[in-house]
């Protein structure tokens, strides 16, 4: 009788430990080597956010292209990026486009903010008439 209780208790403890080990391992997140590039686009003089600006990210080495637009706060984000060299470009009508080259390391999260200058149109000083 005593022997049955000891064996049953040991078996119960072993099963409990095994179950705890498996559930702990299943919940451990696997680290990802991917990074991100994000930031804010604002008007240079006023600091106001530039919403709906076109933001593109390209890498010839990685054969990668992606694009997005800024939100109402001028923010953009590209995530799940591999390490490598990228070119980031921002465009918006009535603004000069801006470009930045980025070397993204494995798992790096890069913040690139842009301050865009308004495009000046030269109409000869006659109001366009």
Summarize this entry quickly.
The protein has 129 residues and is an alpha/beta fold. Helix content is 20%, strand content 38%.
Structure description:
- This protein has one helix spanning 2-27; strands spanning 35-43, 54-59, 64-69, 75-81, 84-91, 98-104, 109-111, 114-116.
- With 129 residues, it is an alpha/beta fold.
- The chain starts with a helix and ends in a 13-residue tail after the last strand.
- The strands form 2 sheets. Strands 1, 4, 7 and 8 form a 4-stranded mixed sheet that branches. Strands 3-2-5-6 form a 4-stranded antiparallel sheet, with no helix packed on it.
- Residues 20-25 have low confidence and may be disordered.
- The protein is elongated, with a radius of gyration of 27 Å.
- The longest helix is centred in the N-terminal third of the chain and has 26 residues, at 2-27.
Largest sheet: 4 strands, mixed
Average pLDDT, all residues:
82
Question: By helix and strand content, what is the structural category?
Answer: alpha/beta
Rg on CA atoms, Å:
27 Å
Helix content: 10-25%
């Amino acid at each position: 009788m005593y022997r049955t209780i000891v064996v049953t208790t040991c078996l119960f403890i072993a099963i409990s430990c095994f179950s705890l080990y498996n559930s702990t391992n299943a919940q451990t997140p696997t680290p990802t080597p991917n990074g991100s590039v994000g930031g804010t686009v604002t008007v240079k003089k006023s600091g106001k956010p530039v919403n709906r600006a076109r933001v593109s990210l390209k890498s010839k080495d990685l054969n990668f292209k992606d694009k997005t637009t800024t939100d109402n706060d001028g923010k953009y984000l590209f995530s799940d990026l591999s390490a490598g060299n990228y070119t980031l470009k921002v465009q918006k009508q009535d603004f000069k486009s801006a470009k930045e080259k980025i070397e993204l390391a494995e798992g790096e999260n890069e913040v690139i903010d842009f301050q865009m200058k308004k495009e000046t149109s030269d109409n000869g000083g006659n109001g366009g008439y």
